Amino acid sequence: MSLEFSTNTFEKEKIILAGKEEYIVGGGRHLFPLLPKAFAEIHQIGVIGWSSQGPAQAQNLRDSLAGTNIKVKVGLRKNSSSIPLAEKAGFTRDNGTLGEMYEVISESDLLILLISDAAQAANYQQIFEAIRPGTTLGLSHGFLLGHLKNIGDSFPETINVIAVCPKGMGLSVRQLYEQGKEIHGAGINSSFAIHQDVNGRATDYALAWAVAIGSPTIFQTTLESEYKSDIFGERGILLGAVHGIVESLYRWLIRSGHSQEEAYINSVESLTQPISNMISKNGFLSIYISLTDAEKETFKKAYSAAYHPAFEILMEIYDEVASGNEIRSVIEANNRHQRFPIGKIDGTEMWQVGVNVRDNRRPEKVSIHPVTAGVYIATMMAQVDLLKEKGHLYSEIVNESIIEAVDSLNPYMYQKGVAHMLNNCSMTAQLGTRKWAPRFDYIFCQQAFTALDDNKQTDEKVFENFLTNDIHQALSICTQLRPSVDIFG
Amino acid sequence: MSLEFSTNTFEKEKIILAGKEEYIVGGGRHLFPLLPKAFAEIHQIGVIGWSSQGPAQAQNLRDSLAGTNIKVKVGLRKNSSSIPLAEKAGFTRDNGTLGEMYEVISESDLLILLISDAAQAANYQQIFEAIRPGTTLGLSHGFLLGHLKNIGDSFPETINVIAVCPKGMGLSVRQLYEQGKEIHGAGINSSFAIHQDVNGRATDYALAWAVAIGSPTIFQTTLESEYKSDIFGERGILLGAVHGIVESLYRWLIRSGHSQEEAYINSVESLTQPISNMISKNGFLSIYISLTDAEKETFKKAYSAAYHPAFEILMEIYDEVASGNEIRSVIEANNRHQRFPIGKIDGTEMWQVGVNVRDNRRPEKVSIHPVTAGVYIATMMAQVDLLKEKGHLYSEIVNESIIEAVDSLNPYMYQKGVAHMLNNCSMTAQLGTRKWAPRFDYIFCQQAFTALDDNKQTDEKVFENFLTNDIHQALSICTQLRPSVDIFG
């Protein structure tokens, strides 16, 4: 795949990732004065929904467009329980920035649809009917395209369809936007996609939207590539795999003689602090280099043992997403929630121990555990390699597999455990984690930890692929494009 | 759903299961003399494939039809690695009972297609082209119908399409057939389905086929109801759930202070021996009644804690099967096996401990563990209740959820562990177990064992539903229709 775009308002920049040219736009507050030009025909931006992305994007857009003639108006169902929350954030009927969902849909020139995936699937016909011809429909996720493909339907032909997809959960989109007031470039990167462009203005709208929500780097994708990598990525290393990794590691550490607290520290704390931070700042190789010789050997063994099992489950996830199965599953799961609400995942010993560890943190006790690092990085690299095979662009791969993990998501697991991280993500992501974490757990127990316990030799070819992987260069370029951020810093 | 059928050759019998009339045919060796009449127009039965069901059904059919003019001929791919195995069982080119697959397909009057589900999906067009009009296509599983529905195709209209589906793995179909020479009625029950009947003879063919492979009870279903309950059932209590139950129970028992050996004995050995045997002979209530007062309380708590979590995963499985997702998944998994063969599942500590326990068995040490019984029976009852909701007939429910588990499958786990049980099942079943066992494991750890550890009170309504469930009467009738068997007896 190769993509290009042209913009009348912003400057695009050529970068070379792993030897391949890509074009990006760098964001930043200095570009806010350009927003009215880029949004020239847009008088009202409707933001529909108030769950994960809604609050963040509505507030960021409003703040970035303050002082212009462009109104940001939130649309919610008549009796939505989110109305008080939107009002608390300043979107009220009285000041004309809150309205009934379908009214806001038909009034708006740019309509950003941020209701849940299942709600999009259930209500898209009525929504399409309410949209005026010439409107721009904005999505932050390609799920709806996947659903339309599954059922043989399509978007109305008379509208623009664009996407701006922040590579981080809603909370982080708001939190880093606010940090961005002080730290130039703090923010969550976004991909953008132009799916339909009926008036030739779609690219500028998408870029302006991404700039306005505070993305430091804006890279191009297609709506199809986006939903595949996104639904895949959250089931993989971003949420599903990392959950399965720490659960299985915790038990393996206990079996290896660690106390409960030590096991928690060497799995969750090690992964979400020094390992994530070092990847964010200096990439993978810096972690390997920082280890002692003995730890290097352990890391190599753990990496070798975990890479193939992780790759196998990741291949399965990718197939399930590409075939439409995951999208069908999400819709059916939502129907079942009428009867059984989604269950609690952190009542188990491990996460109870975690509460205690957090209450008595001694950061000097936390170091890079070589097995934790080996298993985690092997899984991340397997995801990177699979996305390369599937033809995704490096910008998407780096953001969807690495930056989103270490900058946006892992910090929430560090802060309050796995449920805190998950509950701030979409229902699609929560369901995917419940589905795939146990699969990673089982395959690691059955194949990776058994190999490690048997002291199986390093697979030199697998490890060579790690050392020489072209993702290191791509990550390093992407890292230079934005400051390293600490979301709770 | 209600079904009826008429037969010119066999006697049908009315039974009342949970207040509802069903018709069955009782099998037995005394009916073998009727087979030529029932198979009147059938001169050759082709059995295609030699994996799980193929060897069992080909040999049973040949033995039951010995002395008649009906030839049983095995069809295999030209270079199939199974040829020596078929020859060893007496199917040879020299005696005219072994041939190339497509030749056997076009020669046969009744064509029993027992190649793997994925191979059926990949080759069905060529197979349909090779079938002469007027032939009877026999399936032992409705998977192909599910696949045809997924891709919008159908069976040729000029042929009969029937199914005889043994409710047990191939090995058990052969093993109990051989026991049946001594013990009247030993055998694996089958469901049958008449999907297309172009000459009005399909029902007699199906019943004769089921009698000839040694089924003691033959009950009716539809091809669609069969594949839904079958693919669902093996992902549920038959394989997937029972695997997840013993894995999570083993760890819970260790955490509760048991030694490794005790934990294995109280999970796997307890479940596959006294619990399974007692259900097979006397039903569920006998287990509860056999417990002491204190154990009864523990059983009730475990049952209450496990029923809803199990039901939740079972609902998901049923939806995934009914939507076609599971069928698509199986086909894609088979494609991936070119690259990563299906992995080993019993290298972990638990199953290594199991080897040791089996080598030093002391049956007097094995008793009904009330938590194991509570969790297992709750899951089985949840499966029963869900199949009732979905409109399956009681005969199918009892066989697919209870009899197949305790008489055909659990004995293999008892004999040599979980992999031995699984490896003798279809690839569709093996894949389903790898997919769903971890889900049961996680939800039990997150919801059932946490409730148990917190000493949560019994859910009296859930337990009342157990005590008064109409499945007890249905199981008791089905149990009376066949002798209780010990497959390794």
UniProtKB/TrEMBL annotation, chains A, B:
One of its GO terms (biological process) is isoleucine biosynthetic process. Keywords: Amino-acid biosynthesis, Branched-chain amino acid biosynthesis, Isomerase, Magnesium, Metal-binding, Oxidoreductase. Residues 25-225 form the KARI N-terminal Rossmann domain. Residues 222-364 form the KARI C-terminal knotted domain. PROSITE patterns: KARI_C, KARI_N. Pathway: Amino-acid biosynthesis; L-valine biosynthesis; L-valine from pyruvate: step 2/4; Amino-acid biosynthesis; L-isoleucine biosynthesis; L-isoleucine from 2-oxobutanoate: step 2/4. GO terms for molecular function: isomerase activity; ketol-acid reductoisomerase activity; metal ion binding. Mg(2+) 1 binds at residues 230, 234. Its cofactor is Mg(2+). Mg(2+) 2 binds at residue 230. Pfam families: KARI_C, KARI_N. Belongs to the ketol-acid reductoisomerase family. This is Acetohydroxy-acid isomeroreductase.
